[in-house]
Design brief:
The complex is a heterodimer of chains A (135) and B (134). By secondary structure, chain A is of the alpha/beta class. Chain A has four helices and eight strands, in the order H-H-E-E-E-E-E-H-E-H-E-E. In chain A, helix 3 crosses helix 4. The N and C termini of chain A lie far apart (67 Å). The model of chain A has no long low-confidence stretch (mean pLDDT 82). With 134 residues, chain B is an alpha/beta fold. In chain B, strands 4-3-2-5-6 form a five-stranded mixed sheet, with helices on one face. In chain B, a hairpin with a 5-residue loop joins strand 2 and strand 3. The chains are: A alpha/beta (135), B alpha/beta (134). Chains A and B meet through helix 2, strand 1, strand 2, strand 6 and helix 4 of A and helix 2, strand 1 and helix 4 of B.
């Protein structure tokens, strides 16, 4: 009885090859799509805009508070440090694009200065965060 | 001969269980650390500081935002809701005109984004940004 049981077990061994294929494909997918996003650490009130489009591949996020403070990677930074951070990000990923998450009440001058610094850091693709209308 | 070879193959089968463990741990790591950014935004272009090339500058629709957030198209103060209609009528006269938004440093960024958005809705191809000295 015992012998017969073990023989049956051997015969009905599960073929794990298809599962392994799927697991590998998932692994490759996640490795490729992972871009370690550095959150800004602040959540400002974004202005509403009708033409806002989702920017899925943006990996540089810079926040600006209502007072004009600049936040990057959960730290408050100076304007002069923006360029260096952007250069570090482009070294990691040459196809970086940036989003400035500015508060509705943030001063325009700070936003324009940050745009200049990002451009000096080598990133051309810059957007200002906005919420789609009505959301 | 054939049966002997087959038997040797079965015996020398590679044990893939440790590899499977590693792959699973990697998979779980990447699933947990992946965060898909869902940031939506309005594209902005800022003229670079390089000297302008020989481009025929067609006419420009200039929009000014002063320190208090008032919007001027040409010399006329305009409400944010009228910006779109104003730009549309100007673009109808000069279809190749580009739109330039010149904002004072102290103006709110929200107004700037809204003006750029309205200009884009009005059909402007490229909206560029300039800073007002004072």
């Amino acid at each position: 009885m015992a012998k017969r049981h073990s023989e049956a077990e051997e015969e009905t061994e599960i073929n794990i090859t298809p599962m392994l294929d799927i697991v590998f494909i998932m692994l490759i997918f996640f490795i490729v799509t992972t871009s370690f996003v550095k959150e800004t650490g602040i959540d400002p009130t974004r202005p509403e805009a009708e033409t806002a489009s989702v920017r899925a591949r943006s990996n540089i996020l810079i926040g600006v508070t209502e007072q004009g403070d600049i936040w990057f990677n959960k730290n408050q930074i100076e304007l002069t440090a923006v360029r260096q951070r952007v250069e570090e990000a482009t070294a990691e990923n040459p196809e970086s694009s940036a989003v400035i998450i500015a508060d509705e009440g943030a001063p325009t001058g700070v936003v324009i200065d940050i745009m200049d610094q990002i451009r000096l850091g080598g990133v051309i693709d810059i957007a200002v965060a906005a919420e789609p209308e009505g959301s | 001969m054939s049966t002997r070879k087959r038997k040797a193959e079965e015996e020398a089968e590679i044990n893939i269980t440790p590899m499977l463990d590693v792959v699973f741990i990697l998979l779980i790591f990447f699933i947990v650390t992946t965060s898909f950014v869902k940031e939506s935004g309005v594209d902005l272009t800022r003229p670079s500081n390089e000297p302008p090339k020989d481009v025929e500058i067609s006419e420009v629709v200039a929009i000014k935002i002063d320190a208090t957030g008032s919007i001027f198209i040409g010399d006329r103060a305009t409400d944010i809701r009228a910006v779109r209609a104003n730009i549309e009528s100007r673009l109808a006269l000069k279809p190749d005109a580009s739109v330039v938004v010149a904002a004072h440093r102290d103006a709110d960024a929200g107004i700037l984004v809204r003006v750029v958005d309205q200009a884009r809705v009005a059909g402007a191809q490229a909206v560029s940004l300039a800073a007002l000295a004072d």
